[in-house]
Amino acid sequence: MRSWSDLNIKAIIQIIGFLLLIEGLFMLTGMPFSLYYCGKCYALLISGLITGSIGAILWLSMRKRADKTIGKREGYIIVTFTWIIISLFGTLPFIISGAIPNFTDAFFETISGFTTTGATILIDIESVPKGILFWRSMTHWIGGMGIIVLSVAILPILGIGGMQLYAAEMPGPTKDKLHPRITQTAKRLWGIYVLFTIVETVLLLSGGMSLFDALCHTFGTVATGGFSTQNSSIAEFSPYIQYVIIVFMFLAGTNFTLHYFLLHGQFKKVWKNEEYRYYIYLILITGAIITGILTFLDNDPFEKAFRDALFQVVSIITTTGYITDDYLLWPNMLWIIILLLMFVGGMAGSTGGGIKVVRQLLLFKNSSLELKRLIHPQAIIPVRLSGKAVSQDIIFKVMAFFLLYIIIFAFGTLVMSFMGLDFESALGSAAATLGNIGPGIGMVGPVGNYAEIPVAGKWFLSFLMLLGRLELFTVLILMTAAFWKK
Amino acid sequence: MRSWSDLNIKAIIQIIGFLLLIEGLFMLTGMPFSLYYCGKCYALLISGLITGSIGAILWLSMRKRADKTIGKREGYIIVTFTWIIISLFGTLPFIISGAIPNFTDAFFETISGFTTTGATILIDIESVPKGILFWRSMTHWIGGMGIIVLSVAILPILGIGGMQLYAAEMPGPTKDKLHPRITQTAKRLWGIYVLFTIVETVLLLSGGMSLFDALCHTFGTVATGGFSTQNSSIAEFSPYIQYVIIVFMFLAGTNFTLHYFLLHGQFKKVWKNEEYRYYIYLILITGAIITGILTFLDNDPFEKAFRDALFQVVSIITTTGYITDDYLLWPNMLWIIILLLMFVGGMAGSTGGGIKVVRQLLLFKNSSLELKRLIHPQAIIPVRLSGKAVSQDIIFKVMAFFLLYIIIFAFGTLVMSFMGLDFESALGSAAATLGNIGPGIGMVGPVGNYAEIPVAGKWFLSFLMLLGRLELFTVLILMTAAFWKK
After folding, report:
1. What's the rounded Cα separation, in Å, for the pair A349 and B199?
2. pTM of the entire structure?
3. pLDDT tens digit sequence for A255-302
4. CB atoms B1 and A418 under 8 Å
5. Is A296 exposed, middle or buried (0-12, 13-18, 19+ CB in 10 A)?
6. Closest to B159 (Cβ–Cβ): which among A160, A374, A406?
7. What is the pLDDT of residues B201-251, one digit of tens each?
8. What ipTM was reported for this prediction?
9. Which residues does A32 contact at the CB level (< 8 Å), separation at least 6?
10. Which among A332, A396, A418 has CB closest to B396?
11. Contact assignment for B399 to A404 by CB distance below 8 Å
12. B467, B434 in Cβ contact below 8 A?
């Protein structure tokens, strides 16, 4: 390891500066909506100018002087600090407009946006100026873009929690040479992301949504975020719109590399992907169970039960967090299924957060193989994924990731109970923020929000969102003495 | 593997027959109490004669003919079926006496006894004839004896979930040559078990308990069981008696090999044991936190708060399940601490159930080392326990065990919610039976019981008790096709 003095701080500042400049420019994109709906747009303008110019100054002042070599260590610092710093600057429109005057609340809302969580402290969303709501949804979209490059390019190199699997073992960029260069890969996947954004916006528009609502909900969908412009989330929209959002949540929770293959006609390759099949089966099976019970026990009409079941299941598995029905009012066992789905997460390489489908699948497979290994202690029995053996080392890292996730979740529940929350709310808030979902159970359930959480609790949950979004290790490693030691 | 036809069924029948004979004899030991308190003892007499004579017939009929070679496969079958069959016969006194006329209830109560869980379906314990209650507590004592031989002798050989660690890496029988022969080791540890039984009985007698109560509560303590003869568990007994039980619960949750060393003056060896120190620190720290909060928030007198905190913490960590105070009435965060302690369990090599302290410790250590491994990807950084490196393979098995435990717990919660239980009761009943604790949260909390659980739920929870007690894999392996295949 290089020592602290060897750390390429200039390159770090340069990159974060560049990203702030981009953030500033994105802030300005909300101005037309501000002008159209409110006749003024000073909050976004001032915020954009401050963020953009500070970014530009940092970027330009370091551009010439900076040594271009960036190691893993700089990688960890850039990833974590980027999410923190863009969240800090991202609070400006909320604070300057007065929509969220309190800094803690503004930070919670912004990091919830950039981590594509969608947990909100707003009690009356509809009273917030449209331009500010547009920025709020835009944070999701920017966050989703960051996650794509993170999961296909950065995390596999850093070797976090078995994510190298994605690069090494699955039909992904490295293995199948989607494109040898990372930036090219990221750009191609961003192309798909933009394509989805355009198609969903058009479909929502043709369902009767305004351009503003269509864009905001598209941002929340393709990034698996969950911020809505309505207090009732998606519940008041038409069945057509709900089905469109189901489809795009599903797509956003899918590995984007698979979309690339699909668009190039390589259907066989996609169907051979075991994680994909497991993801689909899990949605269909839990969806069918919930549909059945809602139809027979609650006497809902079949189509409504089917739509509600599928919407909530897809929303929670993909960690989006949009809601069409308050699942806490369902029979007990149904919302407990929803709670368990909070520990699944989207596919690796999607914009979804959480543990990820592939890790879940590997753990189930390994658990059953452990029994076989007891019967044949001499034999080497590897876990196989999509027909290929996965190295013991990766399974080890996947298990370590899952365990750390469970430990942090349990610790988070305890911390939130010390903040005065009841058991279900403490458990729900920890699960829903760590998994980047948004709605949990208890007071932070589908019709609740995070407004009443004490200040210290909001900061702690913000930390959990960051932890979960950056695959735990990326953040935790910065807190070890060994990382900073010579 | 040998095929089904190669399985030494005769040897299996012979051993289980012998154990049934012993069980029958143990049933008869309750007769003096039956005669003294009720003037009749037919239920125990008939049960003992039936069990003992069936056992004797099985044993004797196979004794001559049986091939003495017993492999791992026979080991798995003997362990699991012994616990099931002695539980089946153990229901006889309850059914014949009419104390628990329902077979499901009687089986639940008996397997709860033999697995040293202590979960009860009895609503009014004090109305049950004393001789039957004596047998009920005796099932704990027999179960504890079985667990000692299981954990020091059988599980390490079978290689379950890192339990070989106990034999291979720790100051235990194999490594320090406590005694090369398994039967000798077991006998020495049984000697300590009997010694504890005698000492605790004497101490309880001198605290004013009757011989009957003293013996029953001793059985429940040294086996980390938890059946009491009182409806209010230990709450109505004097502080002296509560302290005595705290001490012996602590001792019963300790690795019995360490007691052997202590009795032989090898104090240094014991204190060097990291699992032991971690076990003590965990009790002291959580005990101190709970004492502090009960004193300041609830305004309890200090001694009472200290005693209640320590009693409940030691009772839950060691998986005993005796109660002096309803922890569900404590502030939220305190009973959530108690809930988390349900996932610790006693030390390996104790009579305690659950995950076990050593596994917890190894997982925490490995999680923090994973961060170091990311910083130094080339270095081999092993987990160290008591100063010695633990092989990656054992850490792998420990993680796989923990994961399977969490998966079964989550699945158990879901199953119990399908039985109609509310969330907390479903979660509490799964945690408390899988961990062999007894009281959980919700309706099965400290002042609740398992009477109202539906029949299917009682069978499912009985299965969880068996799973947890036999370290999951011992039971699950019998359910794989590979185990029975040629």
Report:
1. 62
2. 0.94
3. 998 999 999 888 888 888 999 999 999 999 999 999 999 999 878 899
4. no
5. exposed
6. A374
7. 999 999 999 999 999 999 999 999 999 999 999 999 999 999 999 999 999
8. 0.93
9. none
10. A396
11. no
12. yes
